[in-house]
Design brief:
Layout: H1 10-21, E1 28-32, H2 36-51, H3 64-70, E2 77-79, H4 91-101, E3 111-115, H5 118-121, H6 124-135, E4 141-147, H7 155-159, E5 162-165, H8 176-188, H9 192-200, H10 205-226, H11 235-244, H12 247-265, H13 270-285
Parallel strand pairs: 1-4, 1-5, 2-3, 3-4
Helix pairs in contact: 2-3, 4-6, 8-9, 8-10, 8-11, 9-13, 10-11, 10-12, 12-13
The structure holds zinc ion.
Zinc ion (ZN) binds next to helix 3.
């Protein structure tokens, strides 16, 4: 992802780049924390990313789609308007947006729908109407919800979206790569306490998904090292892994980690997946 002049902490930049690079950007994002201005800036940036027509790093900031997006004048980026003095998003407007979301974009490859200050403007009823669409999102749609505190939104909405918290680096995932290495190292040491401690850190959906993704890459690198090829990344952990594990164990661990990712995507809580992962790794390696 291209960040142009957007001010953003490194942890969030890394997380967004990794989602973009891996084609894993979700259909719904919640931007919370920090000031309203900073939430709006990130929201506008992600909307431009979604419509940019560059083949390189997006948003390029130069193409017509980007220019219109940054001018808030792109026909595929829709800001929910709200009604009345408080600009509440009423059920009727949400239903209209859901209808519109099934129509193909005008100029870009994606459509973006933005709901601002959702903890004030999106009632529980409206959230439940929106939820059905977040559960089965139409193709090529990005929903962005901004709010002061994501915890004020329904748990069901949060579980269908990735939360980008501008205020607290830990909540957006801390350091998934370091955590992945910690989990694998304690697994190799056969230290139950250490393994429990490290998998216990998997307490949030986004962090868990990113960590599991890193674990799979590290296991693949280990398997690669064992087959006599030099791994491209993660050399240290790859060597440690290949000294201790058999090929069958590598394959089983990759399977287990993929199943854990699937469980998260099926909405099993991160805590439960962490506990399950701990017991499965123990069974496979010890
Ligand atoms: Zn562009």
């Amino acid at each position: 992802m291209n960040f142009l002049d957007l001010q953003l902490n490194t942890s969030l930049k890394n997380s967004l780049s990794s989602l973009d690079k891996g084609n894993r950007m979700p259909h719904a994002l919640i931007i919370s924390g920090d000031s309203k201005e900073n939430r709006e800036a990130l929201c506008g940036h992600l909307a431009a990313w979604a419509v940019c027509s560059s083949d390189g790093d997006r948003p390029c900031g130069k193409c017509k789609n980007c220019k219109n997006a940054f001018d808030k004048a792109h026909s595929d980026i829709y800001f929910a308007k709200g009604s009345g003095k408080t600009k509440i998003y009423k059920a009727e407007e949400i239903r209209e947006i859901i209808r519109d979301a099934s129509i193909k974009p005008n100029q870009a490859d994606r459509k973006v729908y933005i709901f601002e200050e959702c903890d004030k403007k999106l009632s529980e009823i409206s959230q439940n109407i929106l939820l059905k669409t977040l559960e089965e999102p139409p193709q090529d749609i990005l929903f962005i919800l901004t709010c002061e505190n994501a915890k004020n939104l329904l748990e069901t909405i949060r579980s269908r979206a990735v939360t980008l918290n501008l205020g607290d680096e830990r909540e957006v995932g801390g350091k998934p790569k370091e955590l992945a290495e910690e989990i694998l190292t304690s697994m190799l040491l056969s230290s139950e306490i250490e393994l429990m401690k490290s998998t216990y850190m998997l307490n949030e959906r986004f962090l868990t998904l990113e960590t599991l993704y890193s674990i799979v890459i590290m296991l693949r690198d280990g398997l690669c090292a064992q087959s006599g090829f030099a791994p491209e990344n993660n050399t240290d952990i790859a060597e440690k892994l290949c000294r201790k594990l058999t090929k069958a164990q590598f394959l089983e661990l990759i399977d287990i980690t993929n199943s854990a990712q699937l469980k998260i995507n099926q909405n099993v809580s991160a805590e439960l997946v962490g506990t399950w992962l701990c017991s499965q790794y123990r069974k496979t390696v010890w």
